[in-house]
């Protein structure tokens, strides 16, 4: 039992890290540009499709990831400069409508190009193994995903906290007009941040491929989980995104795995059997509502003004 | 009274809706009646969302939930052999009001992007709840074998049901017209423009916004009751976030902040969907970029095009 708990805890952290990759980019986009971007999930989906296609064609999983990253970055920059840039000033509604249109387009685009069936992505042999530290089974690939996620988190920390670009990003997040007035080309910072966010979404998609099914609509479920992460963590805060993502990942996985047993302690078996899956899928939203009730700005509010 | 271009369009759309069953009977295509009824039902839902978006400035991305709750109220009642329409309606309205009260109390504490994401997440929670309710069909949904029994109008009969829906749509329009011009409507619009000022004037702004949220939820619940009878089905898909997105599109397409705009938006959107899906299986490849173009070039929606340049923010 206890090894199962550790394994599921591990799975939860790993899901959390994946969510962090999506949330980190999105929270910056929300925080700095005040842009409501629904299409972030589409970038994740396209990252998965591009990388798995390349991986299947070339036989190299790594090549798939390496190709997907710049491809999605480029797509993100393209979307930003062609459409989204014009919407920064026009309010959230227009942004919702435009990015909703993009989701419809990209979902259908994937259906036309790749067909309605999903794609199975095989892992290279050196990533397929499992290690057993202390009797707990940990798949190597999931360890790699965690390592990459942590590396990205470290990279983002250094980028945002220690570099000049990071300084501009933070300045843009706390006061856009003032930053622009001080002579910073805030448009370029926006494009950069959007491209960075897109690349992270693409990376998350590419890495999620072998774990989850690569399928149409895969981006939307994860997008809404990402929203929950950002709401909990506080918009614009990378630290909040990290904590929120781990919290959501662990609670979601643990709820799905153990809620039935927990309910079984005080409910009749049948009732526990029916209630547990429904409640498990609601758990993260209940957590979100609770956090909001006490801290409407999230756990780590980034904005001061 | 000189009629503006906007009013003419709205009247024309309503006139067409009024004669759809006749055209349907004449051309022997029952499908038109079906489509027309669906347009009117979703129009009622879009009207209610417009109270929030257009007048209250609250961008709720989870409005389809209340439609789904209304539909599930009918479905679950029918499941237990309660077919009395008035009982079903009362339960549907009470359930959607209660849910709107709870969700509103949670989400209205926040603003902007937060509000959009929270309403979306809460709606998705209800979607998963619906999909998890194995007793009531779970993922597959709940078939409704017997339509609501309202005594006077047979919901199972296509044309009477159509005209009842039509009458309800007109009532809903009238109600909205009265509501937004009432004192309450003014307060809601005042809050949209400047909440701090309304507070300073002594209005309990949160309470007013919550009231609007509940009213809109109940109207959507009513649309759900009709939709359940229209499709003879209640399923989680009705609460899926893309349905909420569709409602937003309908409101925006018609032009926010005009009472009848959402009706035009709904009719146009569903007609477009029908027309495009007749041409190509991949119609979303067209509608997606179309929405982007509407945002970039037709701000204020289709009716905004026809207005004299004055647009609501």
- Specify Rg of chain B, calculated over alpha carbons: 19 Å
Number of helical regions of chain B: 13
What is the highest CATH level, the class of chain B? Mainly Alpha
The tally of beta strands of chain A, per DSSP, is 2
Q: Sum up the overall morphology of chain B in one term.
A: globular
- CATH architecture assignment name of chain A: Orthogonal Bundle
Radius of gyration of chain A: 20 Å
Quaternary arrangement of the chains shown?
A: heterodimer
Look at the structure and give the mean pLDDT of chain A: 85
Instruction: Give the averaged pLDDT of chain B, no decimals.
Output: 86
First-to-last CA distance of chain A: 49 Å
Q: What is the global morphology of chain A?
A: globular
Q: Approximately how much beta-strand content do the residues of chain A carry?
A: under 5%
Largest interface: A-B, 45 and 47 residues
Instruction: Give the uncertain stretches of chain B in residue-range form.
Output: 308-313
Q: What is the share of helical residues of chain B? A: over 70%
**Helix content bin of chain A:** over 70%
* Order of strands in the sheet with most strands of chain A: 1-2
> How many domains would you count in the coordinates of chain B?
1
Summary, kept brief:
The complex is a heterodimer of chains A (305) and B (313). Chain A is mostly helical.
Question: Could you characterize the architecture of this molecule?
Answer:
The complex is a heterodimer of chains A (305) and B (313). With 305 residues, chain A is mainly α. Chain A has one domain: Orthogonal Bundle (ABC transporter involved in vitamin B12 uptake, BtuC). Helix content of chain A is 76%, strand content 1%. Chain A has a two-stranded antiparallel sheet with strand order 1-2. The longest helix of chain A is centred in the first third of the chain and has 32 residues, at 2-33. Chain B is globular and about 55 Å long. With 313 residues, chain B is mainly α. Chain B is 73% helix and 1% strand. Chain B has one domain: ABC transporter involved in vitamin B12 uptake, BtuC. Chains A and B meet through helix 4, helix 9 and helix 11 of A and helix 5, helix 10 and helix 12 of B.
């Amino acid at each position: 039992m206890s090894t199962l708990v550790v394994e599921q805890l591990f799975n939860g952290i790993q899901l959390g890290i994946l969510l962090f990759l999506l949330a980190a980019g999105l929270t910056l986009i929300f925080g700095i540009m005040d842009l409501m971007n629904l299409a972030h999930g589409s970038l994740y989906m396209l990252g998965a499709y591009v990388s798995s296609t390349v991986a299947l064609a070339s036989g190299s999983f790594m090549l798939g990831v390496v190709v997907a990253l710049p491809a999605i970055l480029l797509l993100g920059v393209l979307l930003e400069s062609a459409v989204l840039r014009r919407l920064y000033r026009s309010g959230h509604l227009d942004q919702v409508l435009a990015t909703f249109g993009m989701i419809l387009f990209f979902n259908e685009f994937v259906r036309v190009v790749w067909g309605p069936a999903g794609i199975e992505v095989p892992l290279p042999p050196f990533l397929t193994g499992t290690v057993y530290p202390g009797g707990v089974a940990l798949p190597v690939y999931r360890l790699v995903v965690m390592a990459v996620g942590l590396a990205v988190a470290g990279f983002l920390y250094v980028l945002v906290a220690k570099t000049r670009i990071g300084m501009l990003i933070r300045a843009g997040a706390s006061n856009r007009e003032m930053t622009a007035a001080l002579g910073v080309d805030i448009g370029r910072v926006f494009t950069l941040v959007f491209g960075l966010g897109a690349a992270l979404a693409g990376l998350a998609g590419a890495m999620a491929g072998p774990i989850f099914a690569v399928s149409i609509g895969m981006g939307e479920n994860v997008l809404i989980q990402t929203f929950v992460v950002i709401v909990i963590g506080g918009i614009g805060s990378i630290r909040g995104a990290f904590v929120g993502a781990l919290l959501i990942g662990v609670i979601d996985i643990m709820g799905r795995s153990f809620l039935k047993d927990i309910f079984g302690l005080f409910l009749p078996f049948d009732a526990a059997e029916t209630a547990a899956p429904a409640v498990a899928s609601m758990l993260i939203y209940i957590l979100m509502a609770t956090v909001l009730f006490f801290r409407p700005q999230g756990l780590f509010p980034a904005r001061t003004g | 009274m000189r009629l503006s271009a906007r009013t003419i369009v709205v009247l024309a759309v309503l006139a067409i809706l009024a004669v759809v069953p006749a055209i349907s009977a004449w051309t022997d295509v029952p499908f038109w009646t079906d489509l027309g009824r669906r347009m009117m039902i979703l129009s009622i839902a879009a009207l209610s969302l417009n109270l929030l978006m257009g007048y209250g400035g609250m961008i709720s991305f989870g409005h389809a939930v209340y439609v789904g709750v209304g539909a599930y109220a009918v479905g679950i009642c029918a499941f237990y052999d309660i077919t009395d329409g008035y009982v079903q309606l009362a339960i549907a309205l009470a359930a959607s009001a209660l849910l709107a009260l709870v969700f509103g109390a949670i989400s209205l504490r926040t603003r902007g992007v937060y509000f959009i994401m929270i309403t979306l997440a809460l709606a998705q929670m209800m979607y998963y709840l619906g999909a998890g309710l194995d007793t009531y069909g779970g993922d597959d949904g709940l078939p409704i074998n017997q339509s609501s029994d309202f005594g006077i109008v047979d919901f199972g009969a296509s044309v009477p049901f159509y005209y009842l829906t039509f009458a309800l749509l007109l009532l809903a329009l009238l109600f909205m017209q009265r509501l937004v011009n009432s004192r309450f409507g003014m307060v809601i619009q005042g809050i949209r423009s400047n909440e701090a000022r309304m507070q300073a004037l002594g209005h309990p702004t949160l309470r007013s916004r919550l009231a609007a949220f509940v009213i809109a939820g109940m109207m959507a619940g009513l649309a759900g009751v009709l939709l359940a009878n229209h499709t003879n089905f209640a399923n989680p898909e009705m609460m899926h976030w893309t349905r909420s997105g569709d409602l937003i599109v309908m409101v925006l397409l018609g032009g926010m902040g005009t009472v009848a705009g959402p009706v035009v938006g709904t009719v146009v959107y569903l007609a477009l969907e029908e027309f495009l899906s007749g041409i190509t299986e991949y119609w979303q490849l067209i509608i997606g970029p179309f929405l982007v173009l509407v945002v970039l070039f037709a701000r204020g929606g289709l009716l905004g095009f026809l207005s004299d340049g004055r647009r609501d923010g």
